[in-house]
Amino acid sequence: MECKDIKGILIQYSLGDLGQVEKVGVEKHLEECNECRLYLSQSNELWNLLDTWEEVEPDDNFISQFWDQASIDETKYKPGFLSQLRNFKLNWTLAGAMASIFLVSIITFAVFSPDTTNTLFTSADEQDELILIELDNALSRETADVLSIYGPWDNTLDVNGNGGMN
Amino acid sequence: MESDIELMLRTKAGDDDAFSELMNRHYKGVLNYIYRFTNLKENSEDLAQEVFLRVYRSATKYRPEAKFTTWLYRIATNVSLTYVKKKNKNVSLDEMNEKTGEIEDSGVEISDDIIYRKEIKNVIFSAMESLPEREKVAIMLCKYEGLSYEETADVLECTVGAVKAYVHRGRMKLVNKLKPYLTEEGEYGV
User: Fold this and answer.
1) From the candidate CATH numbers 3.40.50.2000, 3.90.1150.10, 1.10.10.10, 3.40.30.10, the one assigned to the domain spanning B96-190
2) Do B143 and A47 touch (CB under 8 A)?
3) How far, CA to CA in Å, does A17 sit from each of A11, A12, A22, A37?
4) Domains in chain A: how many in total?
5) What residue in A sits closest to B128 (Cα-Cα)?
6) Do domains B1-90 and B96-190 have the same CATH topology?
7) Containing structural domain, residue A38
8) Residues 6+ apart with CB under 8 A from A123
9) C-alpha to C-alpha distances, A45 to A14, A135, B84, B138, B185, nearest whole angstrom
10) What is the rounded CA–CA span in Å between residue B190 and residue B111?
11) Are A18 and A5 in contact (CB under 8 A)?
């Protein structure tokens, strides 16, 4: 293997990620090549050097600071009605379910509701009918009484059109 | 001990003590992760609070599908990168040139361990800052936060192989940038 190839897999080598054949190849190369040996040792050294970048410690009261900030945040960003409306996002699943329920309700109502158009004659109608018949009979009697003052009908007419009613 | 996911589910149900416990576990890690992006402790505190506020606000939508730490570090990465980009936008050209000056020319006289460590911190920060975003994040998560390649891949939303490549390339670039601080025998030191 060339130095270029070795440098490409040195990290895997140091992590133990290489197969046995590659590992032996790298080790053999490292025994003979000063440059790659230095490259590997500097790479490992760099990894240790990064540890000198020391950690910082959080403030002792970071949790209480957080909750203070959270309560301010909650008041500050509490969404009003308009912003809720602006941020409203249609939930298509929910909308579909609601539309299906609405359609099923309409169909159910249409099928099972009492059909008033087919009810023609009720007991109330029967009474109305009797009243109307009685009224009709009363009118007929009244008319006959009024006409009786003219006496009986006479249908005999002469050639000149005279005669008839006397 | 309760797992992070259990604590997060308790937070979702309105238990703030559970969230305090989560912060106890992860605040320091997140703070230091951000600190390595900014190199400023005060800003890192504010940004760490911002990260946890975001997590807290999203608690109602939380689904225990991914590991909590990968979700947390994904948010921390976004917050840090947004901050760094915003900061770099506001940096003047002179400051920018100053910042990207050759590390090799810094010629630090290492006379004392403390001075050396302070200096080396700034040198490492500059070298890290010069790396491409993904290489930097991969090294920070693997090296400093102790995340596995798999977890780092989850944070970066890429494959494990890609993470290994980022770490490898970044490491090689850092060797070149920090060569003056590495000895020829492979032993750095004062």
Assistant:
1) 1.10.10.10
2) yes
3) 8, 5, 10, 18
4) 1
5) A50
6) no
7) 3-51
8) none
9) 12, 122, 28, 19, 9
10) 8
11) no
Q: Is residue A165 part of a domain?
A: no
- Whether residue B28 and residue A55 make contact (CB cut-off 8 A), yes or no, is yes
Question: Which two tokens mark B70?
Answer: 């990968």
Q: What DSSP character marks residue B104?
A: G
Is position A128 within any domain?
no
| pLDDT digit string, tens, across residues B75-101 | 999 999 999 888 877 654 444 444 443
User: What are the C-alpha distances in Å from B91 to residues B79, B85, B96, B157?
Assistant: 18, 10, 6, 30
In a domain, A84, yes or no: no
pLDDT of residue B4: 92
* Coil/strand/helix, residue A157: strand
Sign of CA dihedral B137, B140, B145, B146: positive
Residue A84: C-alpha distances to residues A70, B12, B55, B59 (Å)? 20, 21, 21, 19
Assigned domain for A19 exists: yes
Residue A63 near chain B (CB below 8 Å):
yes
Helix extents (H) in B58-148:
68-90, 93-99, 113-129, 133-139
| Residue-range domain boundaries for chain B | 1-90, 96-190
What string of pLDDT tens digits covers the 166 residues of chain A? 788 888 878 877 877 878 888 889 889 999 989 888 888 888 888 888 898 888 889 988 888 989 998 888 777 666 666 666 666 666 788 888 999 999 999 998 888 876 666 666 778 888 888 888 988 888 888 877 777 776 665 555 555 555 554 4
Answer whether B119's CB lies under 8 Å from B127's CB: no
Interface test with A, best of B21, B124, B176 (most A CBs within 10 A): B124
User: What residues of B are in contact with residue A67 (Cβ under 8 Å)?
Assistant: 16, 20
Name the CATH topology of B1-90. Rna Polymerase Sigma Factor; Chain: A (1.10.1740)
Q: Tell me how close the Cα of A45 comes to any Cα of chain B, in angstroms.
A: 6
Q: Is B56 on the interface with A (CB under 8 A)?
A: yes
